[in-house]
Structures are given as C-alpha cells and as structure tokens.
C-alpha cells in the first residue's frame, strides 16, 4: 500500500526532467518539424481548444502566439461545433487541440471539423496514439510519461514547455530556436529543480489548513497560472478557489475579499507583474491576506513563494511548481487523497 | 432616502422596455447600418474584447458568430496588446469591444491598435460618446439609459439584444432581419415581462439566505448566463460563486459539490440543455441540491426557475432575468445594499 499523495509528489518531482526531455532527441525533433510546417503555412489566426488544465496551457499559448508571433489567437468553445453544429470557415486558421489524454471526443470533433474546413490542425498531447493525435494533421508528443495522480501536474507543465518550444520555433521560421532563446530555455530544468527544493509551500499549507476558500489572481502570462492553481486546489482539496485576472478582480469581486480569504497573487518581474502591484495594494486596503508567488517582491504582502526572476514568458513553467506543492500539501493536511480525488476522471468524455 | 435595492430593482424591471427599444427607431436603424457595413467587409474572423459582465455578453456573441455566421470567433485578452505590446495582424478581422461605460482604457487601447492594423472595429456600448465608441470605426448604442445600481443588469441584457440583432443582421447581409427571425425576437419583450412577474426567485432567496457558496453551470449558449449569474451573486451578496461549463464541471470540480452547495444549472430546451442532463444526473449522484433555470424540466431537480421555451439562442435574454432577481433578493436578505456594493466601481480603469 502506497502512501497518500505519493503519486502526485512523484509526478511533481519529475517536471524538471520533463522539461529537459523536450529539449533533446525525438521529442525536440518532432516539435521542430511541426513548427517548421506551421511557419510554412503562415496561418492568419490561431484557435486553441482544451478543457480543464489543458485549457490553461492553451491560454498561455494564446498569449505567446499574439505577443511573440503577432498572430491573433483565441480560445474556442467546442460546444459551438460539437453541440450546435457550427461549421466555421477555418481555411486561414491553425487549430491546436491540447489534451493530456487525447481522448476527449469534443476536442477530437473540433479538430476533425476544422481539418475538413481547410484548417491546419495540430494536436498537443501526452498520448501520441490517441484519437486527437490521429485526427490532427500535425502532432506533438509532450512526452511526460505516465501520470500517477489523477490531478494533472507534469502533463500540464510539459504542455507549457512543448507549446513554448513550438511557438518560438514558428517564430524562428524553420523550427530551430536562436541561440539566445535556446540558452534561456535550457536554464529552466535547473531553475525548476531549485524551485522544487524550496519548502515554502509546505509551510504555507499548515497556515491555510482551515481556510474555507481562496482567491487566486494574476495578469497576462501569469493569469493561466492563477487559473490552474485554483483548479488544482479544487480538485485535490475540494477548497473553493476563485481565479480572477487582476483587472477583473478590481471590479466587483474585490468586494468579496476580506481578512478571512487568503489571496494567492502571481506577480512576475515584467509588465504583468507591474500591473499586479495596484491589485496587491487594493487588496491590502481591504486587509486581505496576500501571498505573492513569483519573481517580484511586493511590499505589504503577508508572505511570498519566491521564484527566480526570468522573462515573464518563461515564468509560468516555474511559478506553478510551488503552487502544485501547496495543493498537494494542503490536501494531505486536510486528510484528502490527492492521488485519487473523489469525482475526478482522467479522461473527459463529454461531447 | 431611497430603499435599499430600489435602484437595482428598477433597472431589472426596465429590461423588457429595453428590448423593445432596440427593435425600433434610431437604435434599430444604427444596428442595421452597422450590420450591413460588417457584412460588406466580410471579416474572416471575429475577436471580442470585454471585461466582467460585458465579457459574458461577448461570450454569447462569440457563440452566435460561430453558429449563425460560420465565422470563427474568440475572446481576446487585452493584456497581450496593452501590457506586452503585442501587435497582431488583424487585417482580416472584425474586432468588437463590448463595454457598458465605454470608458475602459484597455478596451479602447485594443480597438485603437486593431484599427491601426487594418481591422474593422466596432464598439457596443451604452455610452455613444465614450472613448471606446470614438476609437471604433462603427458603433452601436445599446440605449439602455442610465443604470442606477452599480451592478450591471439592464446594460447586460441590452448588450445581448444589440449583439443578437447585429449578428442576425450580418447573417441577412443587408442588416434587415428576415420576417420569421424578427417575429421571434419581437416576442422577447413580452416574454421577459412574464418571466419578471414570477416570484420564484424571491422564494429561492429565502431558502439560500445562509448558503456559504454556490455553483452555477450551463453549456453552449447557456454558459454565459452561468458566468454572469456567478458574478452577480459575488458583486451583490459577496457570495463566492463558481461558474463552470457543464463539461468542465464533470471533471475535477464536481468533487467539490456536496449537499451544502446549491447548484444553479441553466438548462434550455435545445442541444445545450440536452447536454446538461448528464451533468444534472451526476450532480444528483453526489446529492447536490440542483435548481434548474430555463425551459427544460429535469427530473430529480430540487427546484426550478421556469422560463418559457424559446430557441436556445434567445434563451440568454430570458434566463438571466430570474437570476438577477435572485441576486437582488439574496443581497437584501443578507442585509447588503445591492445598489452600491462595497469595492465595486462602475468604470474600469485598468490598463
């Protein structure tokens, strides 16, 4: 009999190796080839589809696509196509389906329809033999290996890494990263090891053992991290966690925060982090307990999960790591089994 | 001294008249002209930007655009452009900014950048003299009049109606709705009156006076209603409310539901509603208390806010009405002032 949470802990620990794996050999070559094929086709816009954790990876990739490639990108709602029979003309589009299992019928349906309508289609999945990969013209294997826990951790960050390499490869034109870009990305496995070695998350879990709910927030590249953190807390600790973009939080939902609701604010060292400063200040005025996560040290925060400073476009691959550890430690502290949460299935079968 | 909640109650009551107003005279003529101008330009894809309540109206419009026009549509993150300086090539795109005040600098920034890059730009706002309307090439006035309460109600539904008329007008080609379409939409003011006359929402508010949180859910056209309901509950009652697409709820977050957490499920009489049946059944297995909202009568639900059966694409204009009343009644029952919630500003000033 294994110990509770051992699977999730092992998955989390494997992430630095997962990053390194995508930088060499067959996985790297496949991403390079896919990037070159996309660059040659010059899509006019990019549509991402994903659900749950993979939707957050897709959101990250949408920011990258707009900022790094100058190509408009958006997240699609599968149900327009799968429930209502929409047949949008996607002949100028690149449609990217993101799914760890590759087994979700609605995403496969969207990619099939998109391919029929002339779109270039690409699957990003941890299962290269899956229906999603079969349905798409191009396929990228995130090569994260078998995930032990039901809650996704290493498949999420492998999706982030694969999408980062893909999009920077498209930017390069031939799929081959420029030397400075490659050098910056090659540092991520080691940086990820350092982040995982820190014990701050476990300490924080003791503090929030009896929290009844949490708020997570971030802007720009950090917003997917806020959303993924909230989902992870809900999946493993059944803790209601509301994720807001920092901009949206300043409207209505700020009113809901009070000293009883811990706020996890992802604050990097670039434009997104700077924009979060006002959010953290406003939260402070409401006497909310704010813990910042990331490279920026914000005065007035009650605590911090520090992460080394990197360009904000790489930060999502580091910032999520202590937050996954927090979700794991909090679940264990609350007597839950994060490896097999109630009500959670690995493969989505919604149409 | 006015009574608490009187402003919000008056705003809610005005919605049927607001629907009728957009069907005649100058507001209708302006929508027809904008629709014809869009149809002539034949955009290859549509990007929506909005925040908070207006983001939910934009989400509704994105479904309409894909399903009714066969044009790919997505929601953009303003921060890619406004924080990170992304300059996506939008020369094939229609970019629609949705904002009741038209005063949000980030949306105005996105529309300005989009227009410079060759996009057709359109503002949908309750303030035709606003910076957003000035920045856009085309502008539609939702003509809802002054909103008394800080929480948006009648401006939300006026945005829905304006976007519905706009998109059906684009579908027609010349902006003029076909007779059957117009006849169906013309019934909405009267149906809205009937929905508002029902007292079910006030009764439900008594039942949920002491609920500590809520979940809202819907699929397809009903998903924006679920999101807007959650925001309204948070803004006026400070009640943590988590909104999920029915498909996403079946994954992890389902585990969080239990008999103590009321679930408001928006279930219409079309494909979205049918897909929700499994969701309601699964919630029942978890002994969640499910109240359905909409045209479908689902066996096993603990309660229902019934709404007349219309095509699902019109349902968002009716389904939200009892839910706004629920938010108002719940705020009053909890001793809050829904007209002036703490921490809520009418105009967003985030960059």
Which labels suit this protein?
351 residues; alpha/beta; 5-stranded parallel sheet; 15 helices; globular
Describe the structure.
The structure is a homodimer of 351-residue chains. By secondary structure, chain A is α/β, with parallel strands linked by helices. Chain A is built from 15 helices and ten strands. In chain A, the strands form two sheets. Chain A has a five-stranded parallel beta sheet, with helices on both faces. At the A-B interface, helix 4, strand 2, helix 5, helix 12 and helix 13 of A face helix 4, strand 2, helix 5, helix 12 and helix 13 of B.
Summarize the structure.
The structure is a homodimer of 351-residue chains. Chain A is an alpha/beta fold and 351 residues long.
Helix content of chain A: 40-55%
Oligomer: homodimer
Q: What is the mean predicted local confidence, pLDDT of chain A?
A: 93
Class per helix and strand makeup of chain A: alpha/beta
First-last Cα distance of chain A: 36 Å
The portion of residues forming beta strands of chain A comes to 5-15%
Question: What string, H for helix and E for strand, traces the elements of chain A in order?
Answer: HHHEHEHEHEHEHHHHEHEHEHEEH
Provide the gyration radius of chain A in Å: 19 Å
User: How is the main sheet of chain A built?
Assistant: 5 strands, parallel
The 3D shape of chain A can be described as globular
Strand order of the largest sheet of chain A: 2-1-3-4-5
Per DSSP E runs of 2 or more residues, the count of β-strands of chain A stands at: 10
Q: Tally the helices of chain A: what do you get?
A: 15
Poorly predicted residue ranges of chain A: none
User: Which protein chains are joined by the largest interface, and how many residues does each one contribute?
Assistant: A-B, 73 and 73 residues
């Amino acid at each position: 009999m294994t110990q509770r949470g051992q699977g999730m802990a092992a998955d989390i620990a494997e992430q630095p190796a997962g990053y390194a794996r995508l930088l060499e050999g067959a996985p790297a070559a496949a991403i390079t080839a896919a990037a070159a094929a996309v660059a040659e086709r010059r899509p006019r816009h990019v549509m991402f589809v994903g659900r749950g954790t993979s939707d957050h990876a897709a959101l990250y990739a949408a920011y990258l696509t707009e900022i790094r490639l100058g190509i408009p990108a958006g997240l699609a709602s599968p149900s327009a196509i799968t429930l209502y029979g929409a047949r949008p003309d996607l002949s100028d589009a690149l449609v990217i389906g993101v799914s760890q299992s590759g087994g979700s019928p609605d995403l496969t349906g969207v990619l099939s329809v998109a391919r029929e309508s002339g779109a270039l289609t690409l699957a990003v999945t941890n299962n290269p033999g899956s229906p999603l990969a079969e349905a798409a013209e191009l396929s990228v294997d995130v090569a994260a290996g078998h995930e032990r826990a039901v809650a996704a951790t290493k498949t999420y960050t492998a999706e982030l890494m694969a999408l980062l390499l893909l999009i920077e490869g498209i930017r390069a034109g031939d799929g081959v990263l420029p030397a400075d870009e490659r050098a910056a990305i090659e540092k991520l496995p080691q940086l990820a090891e350092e982040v995982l070695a820190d014990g701050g998350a476990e300490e924080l879990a003791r503090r929030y053992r009896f929290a009844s709910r949490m708020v997570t927030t971030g802007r720009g590249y950090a917003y997917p991290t806020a959303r993924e953190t909230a989902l992870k807390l809900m999946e493993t600790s059944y803790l209601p966690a509301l994720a807001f973009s920092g901009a949206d939080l300043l409207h209505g939902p700020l009113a809901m925060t009070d000293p009883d609701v811990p706020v996890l604010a992802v604050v990097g060292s670039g434009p997104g982090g700077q924009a979060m400063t006002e959010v953290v200040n406003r939260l402070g005025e409401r006497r909310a307990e704010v813990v910042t996560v990331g490279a920026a040290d914000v005065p007035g925060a009650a605590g911090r999960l520090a992460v080394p400073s990197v360009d904000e476009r790489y930060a999502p691959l580091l910032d999520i790591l202590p937050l996954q550890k927090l979700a794991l430690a909090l679940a264990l502290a609350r007597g839950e089994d994060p490896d097999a949460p109630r009500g959670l299935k690995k493969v989505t079968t919604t149409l």
